[in-house]
Design a protein that fits this description.
The protein is α+β, with helices and mostly antiparallel strands. It is built from 5 helices and 8 strands, in the order H-H-E-E-H-H-E-E-E-E-E-H-E. A hairpin with a 4-residue loop joins strand 5 and strand 6. It is globular and about 45 Å long.
Length: 197
């Protein structure tokens, strides 16, 4: 094997490895560690008190269950959007450019989140996230945020209420606007955040 061929083979292995890391980074513990929430702004530019946070939690049971369900869907040849019900799909479509093929959307982030110290006066909250995946400015994005409710503690069954949220990539960050009723429900509880692009 000549030197040039060895170099090309090494570059190919590195490229493939990088692609696999980018696909799974956001759903791994390391990917959660790489996700940061940096700033908040309420409706009408209200600045929340410093005690208010939306943050990435340790993996939770309902988050893991949903992540496994999405993985099973994709393993079966389906697309991530098929995980969500028709009402959520309609909300997603309304936040993306007309004619967007929802079946072509990729899910690059799926992290467990929670919130603390939310106040009604904040209204809708826009938070700046840094994710392992880099998104181009102006790239069509939508965020999907869940809040979980325990249905049966014996069987560890959870229900999820999903909200489609506007998302915008800008200067290396993704600005996500969470509706007031979502953040109020998430307060002190468990949720998930996914990005579709």
């Amino acid at each position: 094997m000549n030197k040039k061929f060895k170099v090309l083979a090494l570059l190919l292995v590195l490229a493939l490895s990088f692609n696999m890391v980018s696909v799974f980074a956001a759903t791994s513990p390391k990917g959660q560690d790489l996700t940061k929430v940096e700033s908040y702004k309420g409706t009408d530019n209200v600045v929340p008190e410093p005690a208010f946070i939306i943050y990435v939690t340790q993996p939770t049971d309902p988050w893991q269950q949903d992540m496994d369900a999405v993985a099973e869907l994709t393993k079966a040849g389906k697309t991530p959007i098929e995980f969500f019900d028709d009402a959520v799909k309609a909300d997603v479509a309304n936040l993306l450019p007309a004619g967007t093929d929802l079946a072509a959307l990729q899910m690059n982030e799926f992290v467990p989140i929670s919130a603390l110290n939310y106040e009604e006066a904040y209204g809708d909250v826009t938070a700046a996230f840094e994710f392992p995946t880099q998104y181009a400015e102006g790239q069509p994005l939508v965020a999907l945020a869940a809040v979980y409710t325990l249905v049966n503690s014996v069987t560890n069954e959870w229900s999820a209420e999903w909200f489609a949220c506007a998302a915008e990539a800008k200067m290396g960050k993704v600005y996500i606007t969470f509706p007031a009723d979502y953040v109020a429900k998430l307060e002190g509880g468990w949720g998930s955040l996914a990005i579709l692009n």
